[in-house]
Amino acid sequence: MAKDTSTNIARDEESQARLNAEQWARGEFVDLYAISSLRPVEAVLIDRYREALAGRVLELGSGAGRLTGHLSKVAREVHGVDLSPAMVAYCQQTYPQATFSVGDLRDLSRFENGAYDVVAAPFNVLDVLGDAERRRVLSDIRRLLAVEGLLIMSSHNRGYALRLATTMRLWIRLWVGSPRRPMTSLRNLRRRFGNRRRLRPLQRVEEGYAVLNDEAHEFSVLHYYISRDAQERQLTDTGYELLECLDLDGRTVKPGETAPHCSELHYVARR
What we know:
Layout lengths: L1 H24 L4 H4 L6 H9 L1 H4 L2 E5 L7 H5 L4 E6 L2 H10 L4 E4 L13 E6 L9 H14 E13 H7 L4 H8 L5 H6 L1 H11 L4 E2 L4 E3 L3 H4 L3 E4 L1 H10 L3 E6 L17 E7 L1
Parallel strand pairs: 1-2, 1-4, 2-3, 4-5, 5-8
Antiparallel strand pairs: 5-10, 6-7, 7-8, 9-10
C-alpha cells in the first residue's frame, strides 16, 4: 500500500509540473506581467538586504522583469531565467542591463557552484513544483550560492488556503472571475469550469503541505501551499538557516503564526 501511495504521489507531481510548465511557457502572459511596481514586502527586502543584493544575483522565474528592473539597479550582475521565450525576449529588450535566458528551474546544472550571492525565487515560482522536486531544487539552489549566500523566496501560505476553505471566495471567483476584467471573465466562464473539473482530482492535502487548484489564470494551474513553520523545516532539511519570514506588508511572521490574512509569505534563508 505504501509503495502504491508513493507511486501515485510521484505520478501526480509529474502531472503538476508538466501542466504548470505548459501554462507558463506560453507567451500570452507578457502584457499581464509587464509592470514595474514592487509589493511592500519586496521593497523592504531590497532595502534590508541591499549589501548582499549588490553582488551577483540569479532570479528564477523572472517573467516580464517586474522585479528584475529593481534588482538591476542594486546588483553588480543580474541573470534572469524564465521558461517562456516570449517573457525572455521582452526582458532582453526592456532591461538590457541584465542578462536573461530561457530555462527550466528544474534543471540548474549549467550554473556553477557558489556563483551567486543571492538567488531570488519570487512570486511563488517554486510552487509550480511538487514536494519531492521542490526539495531537490532547493538543494540545487544551495549549490549555486556562495558561502553565506542568501535565498530570497516566496510561497503560497497554507494558512490562507485553510481560511478560504471556510468561505465562498473560491466559488465566487470560479463563477465571476477577475472583477478587474469583467468581459474577459464572462467569456472565460466555461474555461474556468473546465479547468476546475480537469485539475481538481490532482489536488492533494498532506501533513506538511497541500497542492491546490487555485484561481490563478482561470484555474488552469496547480500550486503548492505550505505553512510558515513547515517551510522553515523544509529549508533546514535542505541545508539552509531561516533568517526571517515576512507577510506581504513586510511584517514579521513569527514561529507558530499562520498569517491567515496573507496569501503568500516571503522567506530569507542563508546557506
